Each structure stands twice: as structure tokens, then as C-alpha cells.
What we know:
alpha/beta; eight-stranded mixed sheet; about 20% strand; disordered N terminus
Amino acid sequence: MAAFRxxxxxxxxxxxxxxxxxxxxxxxxADLDGIEDxxxxxxxxxxxxxxxxxWVDAGVRRAELAIDIxxxxxxxxxxxxxxxxxxxxxRRAWKLTTELVFELETVGGNLVEVAPTWATQDPLELVRGAxxxxxxxxxxxxxETGPDWALIASIAKTGPTWVDGxxxxxxxxxxxxxxxxxxxxxxxRILASMDLQEPPPE
Length: 202
């Protein structure tokens, strides 16, 4: 993971975590190697988890892989509607561990790339199914478009709901009004507001 300063050069990841940990309750880590190639960066998760509690989305396809993420140090493993192999894997994962989060990926309120083994294409029904299994936390992740606040409000009525940060700062009011538990803010927007010291020249 590399993050670049506007003035040039890279931020140090651990300096970023030092700044974030007093201000945010957890870090939501999207492991792109896991999501795109089914090859989670387990050693990297181990390192980062020593600095700050983490929820990790590593593109878990099967229940057992959620355990690997937790053993690596994640506080919770994220199971996404776009990657997990259906309700059977969801139930299997819950039998193995309760440290799980269900993620619903949407575009314009419609599901994204849902595995064909899911019984429904209705986002609200998918969430209700996850709640019935026992999973308390749900993350709604809009892709390409802004959040469907009506859908989020409906989901929030069923239990703790988090919204991925594809919204603008001005939308924080709508986040509160929807009844969501909180928002997940993207690192580029956070870094833009951070005033970290440049490293001394070597």
C-alpha cells in the first residue's frame, strides 16, 4: 500500500495509522490481492493489525478463508455479496466464528456481481438473511454511484449498518438521518486533510 503526498514522496503507512488510531474506532482494509486474485496479504494484515483494530475485506469466497483473515489479526472478516459463494457459505462461516461483517455491494440500489448461488437478488432480503444467520454488522458499499439513502434507511432499521465512503462530506447529515451506525471514509480524503510532517532529507 503506497500513499503519496501532494508535495511528492510517500506517506509512511505506520505514520498514517498513528494519526488515524486516536480519531477512528477501526480501520477498514480492502485487500486487493485477496479481492481480485484470491491471494490475501496475510503478513501485511498481521503487521497492520498490531497498530489498530481492523475489519478486513479480502474477497473471502469460502468460510474457511474468513478464519485465515482473523488468525492474521483482523478484528472482523468481511463477507461480501459479490464474492462469497452464497448463503451456505455464510452459515458455515458463522458456525466457525462470530467475528463477521456482511457487505452488500450495490450500484444504484441494485446488487453487484452476486454469486448465482444466492437465493435472491433483493438487497434487503439478502441483508435480512445475513441478520437471521446472526451477523450483526452490515456494510453497504455503493460502487460507481452515490448511496441509495432510501435503501440504506431500510437496511438500518434491521440492525447496525455502515456505509462505505463514496459520499461527500456534506452527505454526513444524510448518513445520520438514514439511521446508519457510521460511515467508512476513504483514505484519500482523509490523507488530504492530514498534516503529517515531511520526513527529514537523508
